## 1
Amino acid sequence: MTKKIHTKTEYRKAKDKLFFGIVCLFSALTMIPLFLIIWELLKRGYKQFNLDLFTKIAPTSMDAMFAKMSGDAIPGGILNGLTGTLLMLVLATIMAIPVGILTGIYLAEKPKGKFSSIIRNLSDLLQGIPSIVIGVIVYFWVVKPMYSFSALAGGVALAIMMLPMIIRSTEESVKMLPASLKEAGLALGGSYTTVILRVLLPSAFGGLFTGSLLAVSRVMGETAPLLVTALGASAINWDITQPTSAVPLLIWEFYNDPNLSSLIWATSLLLLLIVLGTNLIAKSISRKWKIQ
Amino acid sequence: MINNNMARDYLLQLKNVSVSYVRGKYAVDKVDADIKANTVTAIMGPSGCGKSTLLRAINRMHDLYPEIETTGEILLKGENIFHMNPMKVRRLAGMVFQRPNPFPTMSIYDNVIAGYKLNGIPLTKKEKDEIVESSLRSVALWDEVKDSMTKKGTFLSGGQQQRLCIARAIALKPEVLLMDEPTSALDPISTNRIEELILELKEHYTIVIVTHNMSQAARISDNSMFMYLGELVEYDSTRQMFTKPKDKRTEEYLTGVFG
């Protein structure tokens, strides 16, 4: 009898080990593509990954051709793309964050209303709209009336893409706060608005910040909507009404120009590193500012 | 019921108060009670009997949830709280919750004067300092925290946090202090300190405390209410209720037949 139980236990333990092994194996497999991508980018991009990449604007096809012919590394960098990306992300953030956070608070505070469920569904739908479609719409909304491709148009497109993520993360982080926090504020005689602004929002700040940062990192690499809104520019541009370059737009340009193609790798590597970096920062912040 | 023909002796009067979460089902059913100033009144009863619900009616906390319906009259110093601005009601009736809930983003100092901040009452630095010190002294927390005022309120231990929350409530100098099982999340030593504190605060405030702990009610309260299934079964002086309860259900509860 004891022996029988013993063998049964052994069998179960072995089964458990086997299953655990399989789970580990597949988890490891999912990591492989990421490492292969980074490896490939490092291998091909390290030569161009230098200070010039950050301090010089993108070279013209001519310059690159001459450099290539004389066997030198391609001169120039992607400074105009970096500044453009920064400009458009700032514009998008300024537009998306107030709207997104207010909507998120509304959804968290009125979770069951009919209007809330409509907004929640629309926001999910918005997340599903292909980015090029958003780009084309913004082209008709902003580019056409202004008679020009512009950083503003690019910013609007990115803001629309950021909205659903900010709304959802705000809703989640406000909902996570204990109900007693809001009640404590109101029990002291604070008005609803004051309690939201001075108690709930600061307490949820970690979550809001993380959500916004993740949204930024998510749209940072968007190319399609920028193609039809910001267009691209060969020089640094800080004027929001003018066409502007962006890092992913430069990758697209380099890809289309055989003379510039060797810049693709270093640029992609940099973009990937920025996106990964933003993600890691966002995660460490969410851990640090967690409200128990 | 406590007999007194002078209605104005009572700081708080509940008249025919009913609260329903679902239409037609009463969590608190037609409660009448008069509470004298500077007394501690304990509300006892088994889980789900409506004691917290009754307490939360007094500072109109139920207003936050549109599905909850409160009827009847609650008079605070003779004025019907349902005709007052709810924000004013809540300033006059401070509340201490079951779990300590200091504002996690605010320092100890800011937590104490949070009531003024949230009400938009401007204070000079000197006034602030005085309020913070006197409130923290009344809850016997001053000596423990005076050197760490800028630390977050959540940095304190559970018992200290609860005393901070009491300080936050009394900083606004309310008429009534409503306490919803304030010691149920605390260890025995912290519980003991809070109980001592309640007896001291009685000098300045009128306290209504919900408790599921009968011996606590016996230790600290002047008068006790026993509630069962939403009904206020018995309301009498604590001594009377614990020695000669009038209702059979009170006796059964106190002797542990149910609860």
Note: The two ends of chain B are 23 Å apart (CA to CA).
## 2
Amino acid sequence: MKLYRSLIYRELMLTRKRFILMLILFLLLALLMMTPLILVFIFKPVEGEESPLEMIPLFVGIVALTGGFMAGTNNGLQKADISSGWKRYSFVLPPTAKQQALSDLLTKLCYILFFGLLSWAFEFVYTAAADYSNFGIMLYIYMLNIYLGAVCAVMLVDIAYSYIMMYAKDKNQLKLISVLAFVGAGFVFRVFGLFPGMNKAGKPAEDDAMISEEAVNKFETILCSGKTTLCILAVFVVLCVLFFLAMWRSHERREP
Amino acid sequence: MNDYENAVEIKGVTKKYDGFTLDNISFDIPKGCIMGFIGQNGAGKTTTIRSLLHITDINDGEIKLLGLDHIKDENAIKKRIAVVFDELPFHDVFNAKDMAKIFEGMYPEWDNDEYMKYIERFQLPQKKKIGQFSKGMKMKLQIACALSHNAELLVMDEATTGLDPVVRDEILHIFMEYLQNGERSILMSSHITSDLEKIADMVTFIDKGKILLTGYKDEIIEQHGILKCGKDKLKEIDTEDIVSIRTNNFGAEVMVTNRESASCKYRDCVIDPASLDDLMLYYVHRDVKEWS
């Protein structure tokens, strides 16, 4: 336990500045989302679709999405450890590759938990302040799905980046592999688009809207579903395992 | 725990790179000894140290640290050794206190009081960021960390390079204190031979990835000598006795491998004792034989 405390302390201290910056950005965005709600109480309330109250799910979605991206994103520690020489030094320190990988994962989970709780707190404030109960518990499921979805998407990129960092011998190779990974990801999305039901390019949305109302409703149903939560949770667990394995491999890999 | 004879045993270690090979090197460091590891830049000192610390994998050979296999028993070894690199591997944002917090969880035998004693002795600020430290302060901090967990083997890679003589002397003095209980050993790579002449019990000389000399420093220095003679006298000197010859306007200086026998064989020549610097210089030029 003492060992993990030391390892996590080091990682949290090193990512402190980045964390504070992300926190400020997150708080600014979340407060910005609150402004219309506050204005409703000060000025004459607007009824119907124009009412800021109707925008609460959108606000919650944006806050959860931002929080998820910030929590799951690469914290730059690997790169910093290489440039400071700590990566090489870590080979002669007692913590094993597995223990170091677990501490990397625990640090990431700390951030995920923190931003998750913060997103939840803002959702609570939005709904409580506006006495909003249109969705009930569904709004929390909706927020959790968006939050975890964003975390998973960014974690996937982080895992890919970690593998690229591991196998690139120099900066040029790092750039080359990154470009190839980017092109590869684009290709994968293109292939997915060829499946029936995915490619909607030929079907224009009504009233020149970017997304049809039918698609929005379908998307909303998916986001508010408990089944989606279970699926995303499963993906999240798999990604945590993959992240641990990537870190383990990275800490175990010796210099050439 | 301490039932080993040699703190380091390296047998037939080979590590191949593009354009450089650490070629079948072998040497031992008995428990309680300071081994000076000398050689010019690019000779293979750092590769040897990285190999024995398992920072890099070796192609062939066997390495034992504290009587344990350097790969199989890696975890047990790491708790009992300390390493000092030529550059401080700590992040600039930390201070001396932070480093204590980081290391106390990592080393079971970490001694915070001992660490603070070193910090005070080195007059290092506790709360100043490492990024604002001078090179000497950084090296002192690294040494304080290395000496505060009761390590049995201290490995240093060019640790005194770039430090002023006062700081170097202070650090060497601490190493001597550290060795006093006879249970600890030091491997110190450096090309500042004067430091090693002061403190090393043994010396290993590496050049172009090959070990040229290894043994007790005093014996090696005593064995070798610099024979001074005229250029015309060179023909009379047995080639087997010669390491290499340094010529100048006044004559030649020959490094001989056996000073005692050379003083009997070449009675009319003066033979001076050799220093570690001389040994390095003459052995590095062993292939060209004559140089100036």
Note: The mean pLDDT of chain A is 83.
## 3
Amino acid sequence: MTVMDGPIGTASETAPVSRWVTVHDWATTTDHKKLGVMYIGAALFFFGFGGLEASLMRIQLAFPDLQFLAPETFNRMMTMHGTTMVFLVGMPMLFGSANYLIPLQIGCRDLAFPRLNSMGFWLFFLGGCLLYFSFLGGDGLYGAGTAPDVGWFAYAPLTGKAFSRGNSTDYWILGIMVSGLGSTMTALNLVTTILCSRCRGMTFSKLPVFTWIMLVDFVLVLVALTPLTAAQFMLLFDRFLGSHFFDTQAGGSAVLWQHFFWIFGHPEVYILILPAFAWASEIIPVFSRKVIFGYSMMVYATLSIGFISLGVWAHHMFTVGLSPSANTFFAASTMLIAVPTGLKIFNWLATMWGGKIRFELPMLFSTAFLCQFVIAGLTGIMLSVVPFDWQLSDSYFVVAHFHYVLIGGLLFMFFAAVYYWYPKVTGRMLSRKIGHLHFWIFLVGFNLTFGPMHGSGILGMPRRIYTYDAGRGWDIFNLMASIGVAVQAIGILFFVWNLYWSARNGEEAGDDPWDAWTLEWTTTSPPPAYNFEELPVVHSRRPLWDRKHPEDPDWKYE
Amino acid sequence: MHQVLCKALIGALWMLVLMPLAAVAEGPMPHQYSNIFDPVSVTGHQIKDISWFVIGICALIFLITQGILLWCILKFRARPGDDGRDPPQIYGSTPVEVAWTIVPMIIVVVLFLATARTIAEIQIEEPPEEALVVDVVGHRWWWEFKYPEYGITTANELHIPTSTPENWRPTFLRLLSQDVIHSFWVPRLGGKSDVVPNKENWLWYDTPTAGMYLGQCAEYCGTQHAHMLLRVYVHTPDEFAVWVADQQKADVEDPKVAAGRELFQKTACINCHTLGGTVANGTYGPDLSHFMSRKTLGAGVALNTPENLRAWIEDPQALKPGCRMPNMKLTELEVDHIVDYLLTLQ
Amino acid sequence: MSTSTQPTAAMDVPPEHEEWILPSKGKVGMACLILTESTFFAIFVVAHLFYLGKSLTGPFADVLNTPIIASICLLSSSLTVVMATRALARGKLIPFELWMLATIALGGVFLGATGIEWWGLIYHEGLTIYSNLLGTTFYSLVGFHALHVTIGLSMLAFVLILCLLGHVREEHAERVEILSWYWHFVDAVWIVVFTVVYVIR
């Protein structure tokens, strides 16, 4: 009996394979493709929890003075939602997609250190499980256990032993520390892979834009994640060894935690958004039928963003009482970083200009990205104007801003990427009909939730409050936001249904369903375990374009 | 009639659903929109001006980029029945790319200069001689206000004088924290400043218009962060002088509430609260001198009515779960005495 | 939708690169590790500098004795490990083992001296991690460095044992060199820590 390759290309044997052998195969794999899929699977798994936490919060805030959640429970939901979405959803999305695609795009067979890759995944997952185990501590699931309740940035001295009794903060520290260790390992692995495993002919000026952007992203991970680890060790020492890093009674500084956290935290949000740029740079050209406009500037802009992002951190601290010169400096650096970011938007628009745009699902999501991310960027500029930030900081305006970045930007591009690469991973196309339902419903829901938050912020509603009085003018915005959550949930359900249904019933994709140009489309869908029959040799940034257009290859114009 | 009955029924059903979910406190809280674009102070106006400037620039950028996007969607979509050949591949254009780097840089420089100027105008950390200085101490979850110039200590409701060009007397707040980081924010009076332990921050208001302005803590500080509300009463100089005099008066010793006063001084109330004219000088909780001159209790969790006061004394945790005032487990009679006594603190 | 991925007529190609040389994975990986560990240490160094002179109580910086001998030992061990790597590259196993032993011994002296220093500070001077800000930053910074020295020594000892068991050959010289980079990094961090803790005070 012949055995079909599984949905994502498990090793085919000549005899039927038992379920347990498959589980063992996946649990012990070092294959970058399987690990990539596992990362995405884990991201979706934690996304469910993060979404549930958000939904509970929005029910509580739908009307003024509700008592649906006790304040302690709300505060745990608030903390876990942020922590989950940043560390357990955003990070695995980018590691998963890079893990899967980079070896294929650079023409090699696996990552530089396959076993380290596996260890990185399982450490990340273990950290997540440790964090979620906190729900079972303390009083158990009633009242959300002993889940962290200090906010996802865990400011001192709120997190000190004096104000955070019990172990909720310790779960936050350890869960993220372990997870972060895994992330650092994988970033090291991917940087080494990109530098050391490129196929013949692929110089740095011929790397696909996706790979370039991810390279900068992973260097940022290497540089920015360990400051958080260091700060967390300091907090752990304060809590258990009696040290005084953030102990204001002993002369310590509460602001020092903020500096250390945001030295990590700001690059972190660039780490999260750069993959959206990377996906956009692959998808928009293919669906516009044009090469990306201004490859060199895209690369330089990415390098600038990476570099400058290390110097803007205190724009999260404009209200903490830094000197006027410090505030002015960080306003300048923050405004500066808008320039290379805006440049990318113009490059994508220029790519679309004069093209023959096919509005398949990846392109629909990318178009929404191009609108929503611009909104996010512009509210970011508003926030960089320090005096304006003195009003807007810590209000719902900021909540609106970063959700437009992370959902309107990152998540929409993640959906685009899934619709684009799912055929490569599984060999089947995702359903267009279900996809349209997913897109339009989610688009409405997302904007319905986060658009109004700009309004409540302007009317003075601070963040992280579990309830509010009627008559402040916030009621209608909160109600709209809460209704939007229900709409988003329906959209997500269609997405999940699409993933599941199409795995069995989707149209067969073939090697290159989108008529694309990078190396992953030269091999089968799904790719064999060894990726390529023969390792490719490339001469330009679009090797497959060269093969399809032998009379007009790219290398003549680069 | 049928319609009215239906509406009444639906209304009743809504009430049935919502009432159990509604707060315990009685009485409506004040309606006021703390709109940052409706400022009353000098700094508030300065912030508003630069805010509109940057919003204008951003709106322009939005219209341009989205206009191009829309144009691409309409003009450059693949038409059905076209030849399927790829359009001309444009790899880049140095002049265009230089232009769209330089223009944003110019915008950034202009915006930066405006920002730097406004920072310098607003961020002042040395109170001038004429200023009224008030010490603000953030606690979990209430605000303490001390007027060193007048020897007054009060809580949660800040009273300051107007400041006009003819009678210039800005209020400078020295912000300190007793425990964790809080943030002092009254949107219509200006930007916020964090309140950080072991660090002194300054905020100032130069407000020509009298009125009452709402605000609240804007930095997550634990369980009841949501109920660390602020009210700022801006009085004309005459009214302000009256308020100061009232606060400086000793509390009247009314013999009718002697039982309550004695009970207050004998029980653990005095461990946390200070009350002028008694032995109570606890600093853990708010100073209760002239308590009935305040419009709210529990840092804004309820209006300061006799019913709410009674509910609070009976069990503060019911109104503000997690707050630092424990249920003192007083008997009905004891609660009566205490409430009667507190009601005399005008 | 999918077009042939095989080249049709003779594809026009530019002149081929003669050699396609990629960097060594081990070296790039180790460089990444050093990069990430550097930012880790940088945060502790910043904390120490920030809190200089800010301790409210407790033993002040005058109780610290500059560990000259220990530092000389540690920094010399960088030289000995270079000699070891060179010996292995030339296939001379006995000198390799001797130089490795010297490196480990020098590192061991450093650790021992640190231990003695800490014993004195804790029991005679009363400087502990919880005594004051100085204690907090001193022990965490010097402690994390000592941890990295320990890890480095363990790895070096592991390689030495493997060699004594006959598993190390000339072709492994690059791997040992990569390990020596980690050791040089540890030494470089010590130079920074030494300057910040004992010189700047």
Note: Chains B and C do not touch (no CB pair under 8 Å).
## 4
Amino acid sequence: MVRTCALILLTGALGAVEVVVEWPELMAPNRAVDLSIRIVDAPAALSAIELPNADGVQSQLLNSVSASSSVGSDGRRTSVEERAFRMVASVEGELVLPPITVRFRDGTKAESPPATIRVGPGDASLVGEVVAVARFVPDRIVPGEQTELVYTIYLRRGDVSELGIAPPADAILLGEMTQRARTTIDADNKQWQGTTFTWPLTFAEPGERRVVGQQKYEVAKGYDLFNRPIQVQRKAVAIKPATLVVESLPSAGRPDDFHGLIGPVTAAATLERERITVGEGTAFTFAVSGRQVDLLPRPTLTLPAGVTAYPRDVAAEPGRRAFTWDLVPATAGDVALPALSVAYFDPASRGYRRAASEPLTLQVVPGRDQPLTVVGRLAPRPEPTATARATGPTLPPPLRGAAPPAAPPWLAAIGFIVGALVGGGAAVVGWMRARGPRTPPPGASLAKAVEAGDLDRAAEALHLLTPRLRDDASRALAARLAEAVDTARFGGASLPGEALRWARQLRDRS
Amino acid sequence: MAAAEDAYAAWERGDPAASLAALSERAHATDRWDAWLDAGLAAAAAGERGQAAAALLAAHRRAPERAEPRQALAAIGATLPPGWLDRLGPIAWPGLGWSGAALATLAGLALAFGAARRRGRWIAIGVLAALAAAPGQIASWRDRRVPLAAIVADTHLYDSAGAAGAALGAGTLVERDAHQPWAGRRLVRTPDGAKGYVAAADLAE
């Protein structure tokens, strides 16, 4: 599983033609080992393969050839051609193998990267079915210094589907985990498949970290017709633990301007233009490269008299920080720009060092003379009345509570809401006033007027009510009541006793 | 009022440090921008740069449209970064302070009346008033919320490993990072762009 994943990742990561050889980590002397060369995305048919020709190594191509192609998730077709070769190393020790050169019929060629392998007796620590080893490289750092957690699983048989360890919880990962597969041999010269996982990381706090765990793996007793494992046994093996000591940064020799930078750190200074005329300016940049450079403040730039420096914004990008000043010299001449340096902790020497830029020289040449002709009478030069001196901003006088209070920040929002309410209210009031008072229905007015004996209002209500009556009986009743009211109004007689009943009937009918 | 006069008396006699406690107490009690300004000026006159920067920053937060806190901060060497009010300039003036409140009230009144009575002229007046008030109000609101803090005591910028780095003088204005405090320290960015941690006790926000 691990090996398959490694192959898929490797193949997927490749772009143009690539020659890949899975070199063994360790070879037994004078024992032949069969290896393979994978040529990925060959531009043309193969014409020749030049195997490594080093002292104490004999290589020979075999007849085994295989080719395959696959289509990735991005739709790109990848072709892989595999050629086997046999290699025998006769000298014990560390062998540096030159690249394998693959030539194609179109005249192009490709090379594998050079490799280093060890030749010697097998690794006696490889016993059983699975060996898992974790270690930190280096195993002693200071906070912020990079180390690597290296975890290697050696499989004699079986398969691994998940890793038994992970970086400590307080580790700060500095990059992606990388994976590499290499074969090796045990003391009986039996071949083991080794896969190494590497995490680059660091820690912020001093202390000791220990990585322990159990590596689970699966062993199949056989394979069925479709090459599927059968009778799978699940087992676990203890991982050889890794220990890391994170020491505090030493206080001895610590520069005052140390800002937590861990080496390697480089510094460089550049001038936008090294030769300018008086009145012109140029940009001076001091750039620092390394990890954690964002902790670095702007250094102090000490310049000779007559040169003014105007700092610009700091340009920061991952792993680099550049401080720039606009330099404006007032007089001609050579301006010596001092070397700037930053302090950092050097993990190699376990001490503090400085990364410094080179001193630079800015040439300032006089500007071209322009003849100036003065005409007319020269006015007398006024005597200075006071010594002019540059003044910066001064403290204002105290206000002693005399300043108008500042408007609260919420006042505008409240004002808007209150204004909206008042405006809306005013609109409603205006609408109601335009509509006028509500008058009761004429039927009700009639009944009330008759009951109160108000003959004028009764006549007016009857006048309003009559056109609204729909049936003849009601209109006849209204006519009778109108006649009785008019008789009472103008004849001086009193209303008949039925008048109130008639009025109520008309009210109910309207 | 008499107590306030007493607070200034020692300062007038040339002893601003003696006035500092009373002025600071008055600033906390009233929370007025001019009280904070006077407390900051007294602290600056007494040589307390950290306390001065903190009080002047508080005055600026309460009245970002006023020039006095900015001028006083510049005088003690703690220059404020340019804010929205600086960028907008005269465009923001109508919407600031009491005139901004009056314009907002007028906008609400005219818009509601115009919408209720369907009067286009009133709606236009309301929109114009709102447009006049908006730049100043928005800029003022933004400037109050700039995450600045003042260093109140001479301290150092610490890295993530707890190692002291660059020195930070009292009165320096730093930009607070949005992260939570860590081990009693806050992540800040100094005016020259360096990032690091400062003890929370050394910061006035």
Note: Residues 33 and 59 of chain B are 4 Å apart (CA to CA).
